[in-house]
Amino acid sequence: MLHTIILSNVRDRAEGTAEPEDEQSYFVSVHEPDVVGVAMRTPGRGVYLGALREDLAEPIAEAYADLLPDLSGVAGDRPAAVRFGQRWAELRGVTASETRGTRLHKLIELTVLEADRGQARPMCEGDVDVVAAWSDAFADEALDAIAADSRDWAERRLRDGMLWIWAADGVPVSMVGHRPELFGVCRVGPVYTPPEHRRHGYAGALTSRVTERILAAGNQACLYTDLANPTSNKIYHDAGYRPVADFVDIEFS
Fold first, then answer.
1. Exposed, middle or buried by CB within 10 Å (0-12, 13-18, 19+), for 151?
2. 206-244: pLDDT as tens digits
3. How many domains does the chain have?
4. Is the bond into 79 cis (omega within 30 degrees of 0)?
5. Does 251 fall in a domain?
6. Residue 63 has what pLDDT?
7. Is 25 a domain residue?
8. Do 236 and 127 share a structural domain?
């Protein structure tokens, strides 16, 4: 679960299901002699360390130094990300600044939440345009773009059947997706409700129902939250999610 983002990226590339990229991705592994740590850098992002051991951060920074001279930043478990940032600052003469904290949560015991009105349903073809627009809005708010082409992203989610809509009076008001099962774990996200539909319980209700489906298939559920958003953290806590680990984003300038 701690390595779900890196594992899902590796799986997508191995299976040929990764979304098109306009530049090279770089994956690094550390061996002793078995693999004891991994990191990745995908287009448009900084290096991602996941739950990397702190003592492996410096050699990974050194491995990336010649490949990515203009690296924008690093993210991962706080001690490892800070250590990577310190080494990168030494190598490249940059300043490393923390910009965002995130938290990985695991579902412990599900509580199905209710909304003011409406119900959950799978995404359908008529939702593509609104889901594409919501994915752009989510990227703007979360500072973590979903895809270069939001319509293509939405069409992919329709094909894979892993995005759900909460509809109130027949109108889409919230969306929740999840990643395919990987080693018995499904990662929930993205979760997005446009501002005009917030504070009605739609996201919490839909997240809990998507989680219910994940559990019914025999899998565990996890998700990430922005530590600067106390509302979403409370909602997921109410649904039964509990913290596993904290991560940090560090920017280089």
1. middle
2. 999 999 999 999 999 999 999 999 888 999 999 999 999
3. 2
4. no
5. no
6. 95
7. yes
8. yes
* Measured distance CA(139)–CA(132) in Å, rounded: 11
- Let me know whether 146 and 42 are in one domain: no
Residue partners of 170: CB distance under 8 A and separation at least 6: none
Range of the domain at 45: 4-94
Buried b (16+ CB within 10 A) or exposed e, 85-116: bebbeebbebebeeebebbbbbbeebeebebe
Judged by phi (left if over 0) then psi (alpha if -120 to 50, else beta), residue 184 lies in left
Cα distances (angstroms) measured from residue 63 to each of 11, 47, 176:
22, 11, 37
The tens digit of pLDDT for each residue in 21-55 reads 888 999 999 999 999 999 999 988 999 999 999 99
* Residue 87 identity (one-letter amino acid): R
Q: In this structure, are 39 and 145 located in the same domain?
A: no
Same domain, 54 and 155: no
For CA atoms 43, 46, 51, 56, give the dihedral sign: positive
- Assess if residue 65 is contained within a domain: yes
Give the DSSP per-residue string, 92-131: H---EEEEEEEEEEEESS------SS-EEEE--GGGHHHH
Beta-sheet pairing, 96-107 with 241-252? antiparallel
Is 182 domain-assigned? yes
Judgement on whether residues 89 and 111 belong to the same structural domain of the protein: no
Give CA–CA dist 41/30, Å, rounded: 15
Token digits of residue 118: 């409406």
Q: Is the pLDDT of residue 146 over 90?
A: no
203 and 127, same structural domain?
yes
Q: What percent of the chain has pLDDT over 90?
A: 83
Q: Within this chain, do residues 84 and 133 fall inside the same structural domain, yes or no? A: no
pTM for the whole thing? 0.89
Residue ranges of the alpha helices (H) in 1-98? 4-15, 57-65, 78-92
